[in-house]
Amino acid sequence: MKKTHVLIVDDNLLNLELACDVLELEDFHVTLVDSGEKSITTARQNPPDLILMDLRMPGMSGLDAMRELRKSEITRDIPVIVLTASVMAGEDVRLLAEGFDGFMQKPISPASFADEVRAYLK
Ligand SMILES: [Mg+2]
Predict the structure, then answer these.
(1) What CATH number has the domain bearing residue 25?
(2) Count of domains for the chain
(3) 114 C-alpha vs ligand 1 centroid, how far in Å?
(4) Owning domain of residue 108
(5) In this predicted model, what pLDDT tens digit does every residue of 13-23 receive, in sequence order?
(6) Which candidate, 6, 39, 35, places its Cα nearest to that of 21?
(7) pLDDT of residue 1
């Protein structure tokens, strides 16, 4: 069976490695990039089943990267889940209204992370 391919985008290396380790243990195929810009080129070259996108990154933000992904026929239909450390009330509603397909809170919880990701797969 083909592994589910998840692209994780985060400028924080520790966040990337933790999320990657947890998903690889659960038999996902994981690609890591550390910027919004790279998420676009990588997703076009090898479209993943799902993208986990950090919001605050130097250069292109997660929001702008998601908007850019929506412009291309190749990447338009890939679910983009925002990963954010923000705990502001209403932030999840605001981000979903911006066009993200889902919202996950950082720090990730290793025990439930893979199931949360699976729940967003089509
Ligand atoms: Mg960040």
Answers:
(1) 3.40.50.2300
(2) 1
(3) 20
(4) 5-119
(5) 999 999 999 99
(6) 6
(7) 79
CA of 105 to the centre of ligand 1 (A): 12
Cα 55 to ligand 1 centre (Å): 6
Å from CA of 10 to ligand 1 middle: 6
The model carries a pTM of 0.96
Helices (H), the chain: 13-25, 36-45, 62-71, 91-98, 113-119
**15 C-alpha to ligand 1 centroid (Å):** 9
Cα–Cα distance measured from residue 83 to residue 108, given in angstroms and rounded to the nearest whole number? 9
What would the pLDDT profile of 58-90 be if each residue is shown by its tens digit? Answer: 999 999 999 999 999 999 999 999 999 887 889
* Cα 106 to ligand 1 centroid, rounded to whole Å: 10
